[in-house]
Amino acid sequence: MEFNWTTFALEILNFLVLVWILTHFLYRPVREAMQQRSAAIATSLADAQAQRTAAEELKRQYDRRAGDWEIERAQARTQLQDEIAAERARLMADVHAEIAAERKKDQALQQRRLVELREDLKREARDEAAGFAAQLLARLAVPALELRIGEILLEDLQALPAEQLHAFRQACLEQTPRVSSAYPLPATLRSGLQQALSQLAGTPVDCEFICDESLVAGLRVSAGSWVLRCNLADELAFFAGADEGHAN
Questions:
Q1: Do residues 217 and 231 make contact, with C-beta atoms less than 8 angstroms apart?
Q2: DSSP letter assigned to residue 175
Q3: For residue 217, what are the contacts with CB-CB under 8 A and spacing of at least 6?
Q4: What is the C-alpha separation between 231 and 208, in angstroms, rounded?
Q5: What's the Cα-to-Cα distance from 243 to each of 28, 102, 131, rounded to whole Å?
Q6: Which residues of 220-242 are buried (b: 16+ CB within 10 A; e: fewer)?
Q7: What is the pLDDT of residue 138?
Q8: What whole-number distance in Å separates Cα of residue 247 and Cα of residue 228?
Q9: CA triplet 7, 8, 11: central angle to 5 degrees?
Q10: Which residues contact 154 (CB under 8 A, 6 or more apart)?
């Protein structure tokens, strides 16, 4: 078999054409497809890595958040316990304050009742003493005693303070002086009283003399709203009223 350069050259040319065809129509698309596939795989890997990184970050955030929640829950529990303790202390303080107020109120009530009881006992004792004194003085009340009281009244009239003297003179301008006595007065005592009252009034007065057995013994001189008491009944009433006023 002889070597034919033409055939050889044609075969080489066919081979080159085949290579060019394969390169142009097969290898390049395959390479581009492989490059695209590689790029897609790289992108998928990058996405997967990004997702993994994001997932790990989320996990870390969740772990941190879970830790924060635990801390916040512990703080909230502590705060709630503190608030409960403070509220319990406040309520207990209010209860103690109410108990103290009630106790103080009860003590004040008991004290007031004790004072009222003492006042009642004093009043009863005073009433009994006044009743006993009234009975005793009623037995001692005789015209002679009233005469002596009248003499004392004449002495007191001479020593009236200027204020009472002025009030008596003003009262005499409105009403005639009235002299009340438990017993009929002797003429000498009537005359002495009328003279003394005229002297005090600064002008002659015509006194009105009346009997009032409720006076027990003694006299009462009045002119309008001006009154001079010198009798057992008024003295007993004054004693009882003054004692009551002092007790109150």
A1: yes
A2: S
A3: 137, 140, 141, 142, 145, 146, 149, 182, 183, 231, 232
A4: 17
A5: 137, 34, 14
A6: bbbbbebebbbbbbbbbeeebee
A7: 58
A8: 25
A9: 85
A10: 192, 193, 196
Q: For residues 140 and 137, give the distance between their C-alpha atoms in angstroms, rounded to a whole number.
A: 5
Q: Please classify residue 209 by burial: count the beta carbons closer than 10 Å to its beta carbon, then call 0-12 exposed, 13-18 middle and 19+ buried.
A: middle
Residue with tokens 């065809």: 21
Supply 153's token pair.
Answer: 């009244």
Which regions in the chain score pLDDT beneath 50?
Answer: 243-248
pLDDT at 85: 87
Helices (DSSP H) in the chain: which residue ranges? 5-21, 28-140, 143-158, 162-174, 187-201, 232-247
* SS3 of residue 126 by DSSP: helix
**Inter-residue contact 196 to 221 (CB < 8 Å):** no
Cβ-based neighbour number of residue 165 at 10 Å: 14
Reduced to 3 states, what is the DSSP secondary structure of residue 220?
A: strand
**Phi-psi sector, 216: left (phi>0), alpha (psi -120 to 50), beta:** left
* 136 class by beta-carbon count within 10 Å (0-12 exposed, 13-18 middle, 19+ buried): exposed
The per-residue pLDDT for 166 is: 87
DSSP, collapsed to helix, strand or coil, labels residue 202 as: coil
Which of helix, strand or coil describes residue 223? strand
